Protein backbone atom coordinates (compact mmCIF):
# COMPACT_ATOMS: atom_id res chain seq x y z
CA UNK A 1 0.00 0.00 0.00
CA UNK A 2 2.80 2.40 0.91
CA UNK A 3 4.65 1.75 -2.37
CA UNK A 4 1.53 2.43 -4.46
CA UNK A 5 0.97 5.75 -2.67
CA UNK A 6 4.60 6.68 -3.31
CA UNK A 7 4.23 5.88 -7.04
CA UNK A 8 1.01 7.89 -7.26
CA UNK A 9 2.59 10.89 -5.53
CA UNK A 10 5.65 10.69 -7.78
CA UNK A 11 3.45 10.43 -10.90
CA UNK A 12 1.30 13.44 -9.95
CA UNK A 13 3.92 15.85 -8.59
CA UNK A 14 5.57 16.92 -11.85
CA UNK A 15 2.29 17.41 -13.76
CA UNK A 16 0.91 19.50 -10.89
CA UNK A 17 4.02 21.68 -10.78
CA UNK A 18 3.93 22.01 -14.57
CA UNK A 19 0.32 23.19 -14.53
CA UNK A 20 1.21 25.74 -11.86
CA UNK A 21 4.10 27.02 -13.99
CA UNK A 22 1.74 27.48 -16.95
CA UNK A 23 -0.55 29.67 -14.90
CA UNK A 24 2.15 31.87 -13.37
CA UNK A 25 2.79 35.30 -14.92
CA UNK A 26 5.27 35.18 -17.79
CA UNK A 27 8.83 36.34 -17.23
CA UNK A 28 9.98 39.63 -18.76
CA UNK A 29 13.07 38.02 -20.29
CA UNK A 30 11.23 35.64 -22.61
CA UNK A 31 11.94 35.95 -26.34
CA UNK A 32 9.46 35.49 -29.16
CA UNK A 33 8.78 31.76 -29.54
CA UNK A 34 9.70 30.82 -25.98
CA UNK A 35 6.92 28.77 -24.45
CA UNK A 36 5.73 25.81 -22.48
CA UNK A 37 2.90 23.34 -23.11
CA UNK A 38 1.27 20.67 -21.00
CA UNK A 39 -1.33 17.99 -21.64
CA UNK A 40 -2.43 14.37 -21.38
CA UNK A 41 -1.19 11.58 -23.65
CA UNK A 42 -3.49 8.71 -24.69
CA UNK A 43 -1.62 5.81 -26.25
CA UNK A 44 -2.11 2.30 -27.57
CA UNK A 45 0.71 -0.11 -28.34
CA UNK A 46 0.86 -2.57 -31.22
CA UNK A 47 0.31 -5.38 -28.70
CA UNK A 48 -2.94 -3.75 -27.49
CA UNK A 49 -1.85 -2.08 -24.23
CA UNK A 50 -3.73 1.14 -23.47
CA UNK A 51 -1.99 3.94 -21.59
CA UNK A 52 -2.67 7.36 -20.16
CA UNK A 53 0.12 9.79 -19.40
CA UNK A 54 1.29 13.39 -19.41
CA UNK A 55 3.73 15.51 -21.35
CA UNK A 56 5.42 18.82 -20.64
CA UNK A 57 7.00 20.47 -23.70
CA UNK A 58 9.09 23.55 -24.20
CA UNK A 59 10.08 25.61 -27.21
CA UNK A 60 12.95 28.04 -27.45
CA UNK A 61 13.19 31.03 -29.82
CA UNK A 62 10.53 29.56 -32.14
CA UNK A 63 13.13 27.47 -33.90
CA UNK A 64 11.75 24.12 -34.99
CA UNK A 65 14.93 22.37 -33.90
CA UNK A 66 14.82 23.42 -30.24
CA UNK A 67 11.84 21.66 -28.72
CA UNK A 68 12.07 19.39 -25.70
CA UNK A 69 9.53 17.02 -24.14
CA UNK A 70 9.39 15.41 -20.69
CA UNK A 71 6.65 12.92 -19.93
CA UNK A 72 5.30 9.73 -18.45
CA UNK A 73 3.00 6.98 -19.70
CA UNK A 74 1.15 4.50 -17.46
CA UNK A 75 -0.61 1.44 -18.82
CA UNK A 76 -4.26 1.14 -17.84
CA UNK A 77 -4.50 -2.21 -19.63
CA UNK A 78 -1.21 -4.03 -20.17
CA UNK A 79 -0.60 -6.77 -22.71
CA UNK A 80 2.46 -8.59 -23.97
CA UNK A 81 5.94 -7.46 -22.98
CA UNK A 82 5.05 -3.77 -22.68
CA UNK A 83 6.44 -2.07 -19.55
CA UNK A 84 3.91 -1.10 -16.88
CA UNK A 85 5.06 2.52 -17.19
CA UNK A 86 7.83 4.64 -18.67
CA UNK A 87 9.14 8.19 -18.22
CA UNK A 88 10.99 9.99 -20.98
CA UNK A 89 13.06 13.00 -21.99
CA UNK A 90 13.32 13.77 -25.70
CA UNK A 91 14.29 16.31 -28.31
CA UNK A 92 11.41 16.84 -30.73
CA UNK A 93 12.50 18.89 -33.74
CA UNK A 94 9.92 19.74 -36.38
CA UNK A 95 10.41 20.84 -39.98
CA UNK A 96 7.71 19.31 -42.22
CA UNK A 97 7.06 16.46 -39.83
CA UNK A 98 8.14 16.10 -36.22
CA UNK A 99 10.72 13.64 -34.97
CA UNK A 100 11.37 12.28 -31.49
CA UNK A 101 14.75 11.17 -30.19
CA UNK A 102 15.47 10.62 -26.51
CA UNK A 103 15.68 8.20 -23.61
CA UNK A 104 13.01 6.43 -21.58
CA UNK A 105 13.24 4.80 -18.17
CA UNK A 106 10.81 1.91 -17.74
CA UNK A 107 9.17 -0.04 -14.93
CA UNK A 108 11.63 -2.82 -15.73
CA UNK A 109 14.46 -0.63 -14.34
CA UNK A 110 16.14 -0.23 -17.69
CA UNK A 111 16.85 2.66 -20.02
CA UNK A 112 15.65 2.48 -23.61
CA UNK A 113 16.05 4.55 -26.73
CA UNK A 114 12.95 6.61 -27.55
CA UNK A 115 12.35 7.44 -31.22
CA UNK A 116 9.38 8.37 -33.33
CA UNK A 117 7.48 10.61 -35.76
CA UNK A 118 4.61 13.03 -35.10
CA UNK A 119 2.55 15.80 -36.63
CA UNK A 120 0.44 18.44 -34.98
CA UNK A 121 -2.04 21.25 -35.42
CA UNK A 122 -2.13 24.41 -33.33
CA UNK A 123 -4.73 27.13 -32.77
CA UNK A 124 -4.10 30.49 -31.11
CA UNK A 125 -6.99 30.78 -28.66
CA UNK A 126 -7.12 34.55 -29.15
CA UNK A 127 -7.54 34.26 -32.94
CA UNK A 128 -10.65 33.33 -34.92
CA UNK A 129 -11.07 29.56 -35.02
CA UNK A 130 -9.54 28.00 -38.15
CA UNK A 131 -8.82 31.46 -39.59
CA UNK A 132 -6.60 31.69 -42.66
CA UNK A 133 -5.44 35.17 -41.56
CA UNK A 134 -2.13 35.04 -39.72
CA UNK A 135 -2.02 38.71 -38.65
CA UNK A 136 -1.94 37.63 -35.00
CA UNK A 137 1.31 35.72 -35.63
CA UNK A 138 3.25 38.99 -35.94
CA UNK A 139 2.40 40.02 -32.38
CA UNK A 140 5.54 38.85 -30.60
CA UNK A 141 5.16 41.36 -27.78
CA UNK A 142 2.75 39.34 -25.66
CA UNK A 143 2.06 35.81 -24.50
CA UNK A 144 -0.63 33.75 -26.21
CA UNK A 145 -2.66 30.78 -25.05
CA UNK A 146 -2.45 28.12 -27.76
CA UNK A 147 -4.21 24.77 -28.10
CA UNK A 148 -2.39 22.01 -29.99
CA UNK A 149 -3.30 18.49 -31.02
CA UNK A 150 -0.56 16.02 -31.91
CA UNK A 151 -0.80 12.52 -33.34
CA UNK A 152 2.27 10.33 -33.48
CA UNK A 153 4.07 7.03 -33.30
CA UNK A 154 7.02 6.22 -31.06
CA UNK A 155 9.18 3.27 -30.22
CA UNK A 156 10.45 2.60 -26.72
CA UNK A 157 12.88 -0.24 -27.23
CA UNK A 158 10.74 -3.12 -28.51
CA UNK A 159 7.44 -1.40 -27.55
CA UNK A 160 5.69 0.50 -30.38
CA UNK A 161 3.02 3.05 -29.41
CA UNK A 162 0.58 5.26 -31.32
CA UNK A 163 -0.58 8.31 -29.36
CA UNK A 164 -2.63 11.49 -29.36
CA UNK A 165 -1.77 14.52 -27.23
CA UNK A 166 -3.89 17.64 -26.74
CA UNK A 167 -1.92 20.45 -25.04
CA UNK A 168 -2.41 23.96 -23.78
CA UNK A 169 0.60 26.19 -24.46
CA UNK A 170 1.68 29.56 -23.14
CA UNK A 171 3.94 31.02 -25.85
CA UNK A 172 5.36 34.48 -26.40
CA UNK A 173 4.67 35.60 -29.95
CA UNK A 174 3.36 32.14 -30.88
CA UNK A 175 4.94 31.56 -34.25
CA UNK A 176 4.79 27.87 -35.12
CA UNK A 177 5.17 28.78 -38.78
CA UNK A 178 8.89 29.63 -38.83
User: CATH topology, what is it called?
Assistant: Porin
Q: Quick one: how many beta strands?
A: 8
- Low-confidence sequence ranges: 22-28
What characteristic shape results from the CA principal axes? Answer: elongated
Strand order, sheet with most strands: 1-2-3-4-5-6-7-8
Q: How large a portion of the residues is in β-strands, by DSSP E?
A: over 45%
**H/E element order:** HEEEEEEEE
Broad structural category: mainly beta
What helical percentage do the residues reach?
Answer: 10-25%
The CATH first-level class comes to Mainly Beta
Q: How confident is the prediction overall: mean pLDDT?
A: 79
Q: How many domains in all?
A: 1
Summarize the structure.
This protein is mainly β and 178 residues long. The protein has one helix at residues 2-23; strands spanning 35-45, 50-59, 67-77, 85-91, 98-106, 111-124, 143-156, 159-172. It has a single domain, classed as Porin.
Could you explain how this protein is built, in words?
By secondary structure, the chain is mostly beta strands. The chain has one domain (2-24, 33-172): Porin (Beta Barrel), CATH 2.40.160. Helices cover 12% and strands 51% of the residues. The chain is built from one helix and eight strands. It has one helix spanning 2-23; strands spanning 35-45, 50-59, 67-77, 85-91, 98-106, 111-124, 143-156, 159-172. It has an eight-stranded antiparallel barrel with strand order 1-2-3-4-5-6-7-8. The longest helix is centred in the N-terminal third of the chain and has 22 residues, at 2-23. The N and C termini lie far apart (50 Å). 31% of the residues are buried.
Amino acid sequence: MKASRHRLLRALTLPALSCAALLLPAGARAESGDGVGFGPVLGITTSGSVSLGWELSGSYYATPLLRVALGGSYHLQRKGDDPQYFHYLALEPWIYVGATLGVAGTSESDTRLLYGLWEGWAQDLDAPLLSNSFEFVDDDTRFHWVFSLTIGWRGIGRTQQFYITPKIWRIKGWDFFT
